[in-house]
Amino acid sequence: MLRLDELQRIGIVAVFCLVVSICRAGESEQVDYFADNALGNPLALVQHPAGIHSNGVTYIAYQGPLEDPYIVAYNHKTQQWQGPVKAGTSDLGKNLHIKPKTDNHGKPTLLIDDLGYIHVFFGGHGAGSKYGNNPLGRGGVGRNKHVVSVKPHDISEWQELDNISVFGTYNQAVKMDNGDIYLIYRHGAHRSDWVYQKSVDHGRTFAEPVSFLKHQQRTDLPATDSWYVWATRGKNDDIIFAYDYHLCWLQGEGPRGRGHVTERHDLYYMVFNTQSNSWRNIHNQSLAIPLTRELADKQTRVVETPEDHWTFMGSAHLDGQGYPHIALNSGRDTGVNTGGPKQTLYYRWDGTQWLGGKPVHSESLRNNTDTRGDFAVTSSNEVTFALGYEEQGSSIIGYLQSKDGGTTFNRTKSLLTSKNAEWALTALIDNAHPEARLIVAEKLPGNQWHKIYLVGDNGPVPRARSEADVLTPDDTRVLQ
To answer: Are 223 and 169 in contact (CB under 8 A)?
Structure first.
C-alpha cells in the first residue's frame, strides 16, 4: 500500500504533466490568421503590392501598432512563419488618443529589387508645409518614407533611405524587366498632382518627381480637379494606369453643402512607355502630360458614370493580347460623406471598344452592399475575381468567375467567412503562390485591432496561435 507522501508526490507529478500537456497543446494549436495586431484600416488595394512571392517565400506588409509598417514572411516549403517585424517608424499614428484615432493613408507598399533587397514605402499623407514648399500640391500630414532590408530576402533588419519626396501619398511600386523601379503616388493631399519617381540603381537613389496627372482649380465650380490612380506593369516596357476623377469641393460647397467629401466619377485609362518616356491612350494617340481633366475626358475616358453614382478606383490587368481589363467600384450617392456602398463593376477592351459595366456580384447591387477585390485574367473572355462581399448575413472572401467576357459571373469557391465583419483586402500578391493569393484583414465592429490572414486557393494559411497572437497590452493601451 502506498504511503500518503507517495500519493502526494504522484499527484504533484500528474498535475505537472497535465499543465505541460495543456501548454504544449496551446503552443501547437493552429489558427487561420497569422497576426492579430493589424490597426485601423490596415490594408487596401491602392497601396500595392502589399505582398510578393519570391524564391518560395511570400512577403507581406501591413499597418500595425502606431500605424508603423510590419512585415511577415512565410516559407511555403518549410511552412514556417517569420515576423511580424517592425520595418520603420511612421510619423502618423503617434497621437492615437486624439480623434481621429488612425489616419490610414500611410499603409506600406513592398518591392523586391533585382538584388533581392526588400523595399518598403510608407507613412505619407501629404507631409505639409512644415517640410517645405510642395510645388505640385497641397499639404497634409505624415512624411513619406523608404526603408530597405539590410540583407537580401531577410526581413529581420532595416535601414532608412532619405531618397523620395516626403509629400507622397498612396505609394505604388513597379519594377521593370531591366531592374528600373518606378514609385508612383499623389504628391500631397487631395489637391495635388500624381507623379512618379524613377530609380535606375535598385532604389538607392530616385530622380525628381515627374507629374503625369494635373490638379487644378475649376473655373466653373467652387472645386478642384483631383484623381485616384491604380498603376501596374503592362506589356514589355509599359506601365498601365486606370484612374477615376475626384471632384474636390471647397468647404461648404457641393451637393447639400457637404463640402470636401469622397465624390468621384468616371473611369479612365492610359499607358506609359518607360523606354521612350511617352504616354498614349487606348487608340495609340500620344498624350501630353501632365494631363488635365479636359484632356483626360476627351482622350482617356473609358466610361462616364451617372452623376448620382460615386466611384472608388479598382484595379487593372492585361490579357494575353495586351488588351486591358478594369474593375471599378460604383454605387449611388445615399447622402453620406462617403456616398454610400459601392459594387464592383468589370470593363474590358476588345480591340475596338470598351465592353462591360455589369456587377461582379449581382446580389450586392440588389442589396446595395459593398464589394471590393482584385482579379486575374486567364483569357480575353475569362477572368476570376477574389472578392469580399456580403451574402445571407455573412461576410465572405470568395472567387467569382466569368467565362463570357463579364456578361455573367458565377461563384466558384468560398475562401474565408466571418459574421458581421468588414473586409480590408490587398491587390493580388505579385507572382503569387497558389497557397497565398491575397492578404485580408477582418474588421469587426467597434474594434480598432484586427486579425489578418494570408489567403490562397485552399483558404487561409494556418499558423500556431502562440506565434499569431502578437498584440500586447502596451499596444492596446495606446488607444485608451
So the answer is: no
CA atoms of 318 and 239, how far apart (whole Å): 11
The amino acid sitting at 140 is G
SS3 114: coil
Q: How confident is the model at residue 254 (pLDDT cuts 50, 70, 90)?
A: confident
When computed from its CA atoms, the radius of gyration of the chain, rounded to whole angstroms, is: 24
Give the whole-angstrom CA distance, residue 387 versus residue 315. Answer: 12
- pLDDT at position 23 over 70: no
Judge if pTM exceeds 0.90: yes
Residue 121: φ, ψ to 5°: -115, 130
CB 369, CB 361: distance < 8 Å? no
Q: Are 118 and 149 in contact (CB under 8 A)?
A: yes
Confirm whether 325 is a catalytic residue: no
Are the beta carbons of 350 and 323 closer than 8 angstroms?
yes
Beta strand pairing call for 278-280 and 264-273: antiparallel
Closest of 393, 402, 321 to residue 360, by C-alpha: 402
Looking at the DSSP assignment, which residues form a beta bridge with residue 425?
440
Neighbours of 232 (CB within 10 A): 21
403 alpha-carbon distance from chain centroid? 26
- Set 48, 53, 105, 202: catalytic member: 105
Cβ atoms of 234 and 241 closer than 8 Å: no
Placement of cell 503592362 in the chain: 234
Distance between CA atoms of residues 331 and 18, nearest Å = 57
Residue 451 Cα to chain centre, angstroms = 16
> How many whole angstroms separate alpha carbon 285 and alpha carbon 239?
16
CB atoms under 10 Å from CB of 172, counted, come to 25
CA-nearest of 109, 293, 106, 103 to 194 is 293
Q: How is the beta sheet containing 410-419 ordered, strand by strand?
A: 372-379, 382-391, 394-402, 410-419
Band of pLDDT at residue 355, cut at 50, 70 and 90: very high
Quote the CA–CA distance of 159 and 72 in Å, as a whole number.
17
- Between CA 189 and CA 131 the distance in angstroms is 14
The catalytically annotated residue of 33, 70, 74, 170 is 170
- Cα–Cα–Cα angle for 424, 192, 195, nearest 5°? 80
Tabulate helix, strand, coil % of the chain (nearest 5).
Answer: 10, 45, 45
Phi and psi torsions of 155, nearest 5°: -95, 5
The answer to whether residue 196 is catalytic is: no
End-to-end CA distance of the chain: 60
Q: pLDDT tens-digit profile of 256-271? A: 889 999 999 999 999 9
